[in-house]
């Protein structure tokens, strides 16, 4: 059983930055992919970014490419999402997730492939 806890959300003005963190409880953190998803009110949960277990491969949604950076520190069992140049349309609850079957070198942008989810952290960007 993997437990994921997000932190770092908050209220920020457009153009500002936030860094989200996702702490995992498992002892095999480096062996599976992690991802960030978000869900705005009235919308479906959507993919934001993913990173392989090794940390060597990443993939981003077009809407955040060039503004967001996903990373992980396997020694600390923690994943991060650095969000810069935030826009009001980035407002959502952000969730981290673990894909336990991905292996060390792969990742996934499909939410139905993720096995464990955090409780979410609210990000609000004011205009």
Integer-rounded radius of gyration: 13 Å
Overall average residue pLDDT: 96
- What's the SSE pattern? EEEEEEEEEEE
Largest sheet: 7 strands, mixed
Terminal CA distance reads 40 Å
Kindly report the oligomeric state of this protein: single chain
What structural category arises from helix and sheet content?
mainly beta
Q: How does the overall form come out from the CA principal axes?
A: globular
Query: What ranges have pLDDT less than 50 throughout 5 or more consecutive residues?
Result: none
The amount of beta strand, in percent, is: over 45%
Would you report the number of β strands? 11
Helix content: under 10%
Query: Treating each run of at least 4 consecutive H or I residues as one helix, how many helices?
Result: 0
């Amino acid at each position: 059983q993997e437990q994921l806890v997000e932190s770092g959300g908050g209220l920020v003005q457009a153009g500002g930055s936030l860094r989200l963190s996702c702490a995992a409880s498992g002892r095999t953190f480096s062996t599976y992919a992690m991802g960030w998803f978000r869900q705005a009110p009235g919308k479906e949960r959507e993919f934001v970014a993913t990173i392989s277990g090794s940390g060597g491969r990443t993939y981003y949604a077009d809407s955040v490419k060039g503004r967001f950076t996903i990373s992980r520190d396997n020694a600390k069992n923690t994943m991060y999402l650095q969000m810069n140049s935030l826009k009001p349309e980035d407002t959502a609850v952000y969730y981290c997730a673990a894909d336990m079957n991905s292996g060390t070198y792969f990742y996934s942008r499909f939410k139905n492939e993720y096995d464990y989810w955090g409780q979410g952290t609210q990000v609000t960007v004011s205009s």
